[in-house]
Amino acid sequence: MKCSNFLMILVIAGLLSACNNTKEISNEESNDIPAQENVIGNVPDMLHYGEGYKDGMKVVTLHTAYNDPKSVSAIISIENVGDTPLNADSLAFSLYDDTEDLTYQGTIAANKNPADRNLQPNDKITLNITFNIPILNDEYRLTVESFNSTDTTPWLVDDLKVEG
């Protein structure tokens, strides 16, 4: 009888210990959540190739950029993460040349892009955006803006191999 009481006490102690560990883990996890939100909320001053940002309706990523004679092309993907359709034609693509204090507006060339740029929720599209530039410089800032978002976190566009 003493042995079974002892076993019963060990089982109860083990169960109580497990319940306490579960509570400790829950407290630790809840303490980590604000820290993770802060890391996600800290947007860098400048994004780089392969990085993206999310605003309320879309995720935008700049994959690469390259130069052609008198232009810069940027490969950008847009994913609709909202609940309503999104038309990629409604976005404004801007390339800023800080050395010359100039801004160039990007165009979605029909011969380099899909004809249907209407994104339903969860759809994704990759676009080739062209900026006509008379003189190519070493680096630029690129932004993608929309009428319903104030987030204009720029990407650094560099490594364009300017010959000179």
TrEMBL record:
Database matches in Gene3D superfamilies: 2.60.40.1240
Keyword Signal in annotation: yes
UniProt KW keywords: Signal
Family matches, as Pfam families: DUF4352
PROSITE patterns: PROKAR_LIPOPROTEIN
Transmembrane domains' residue ranges: none
Positions of the DUF4352 domain: 72-147
Keyword match Signal: yes
Signal peptide feature range: 1-18
InterPro entries: DUF4352 (IPR029051), Immunoprotect_excell_Ig-like (IPR029050)
This protein's name: DUF4352 domain-containing protein
Organism of this sequence: Gracilibacillus oryzae
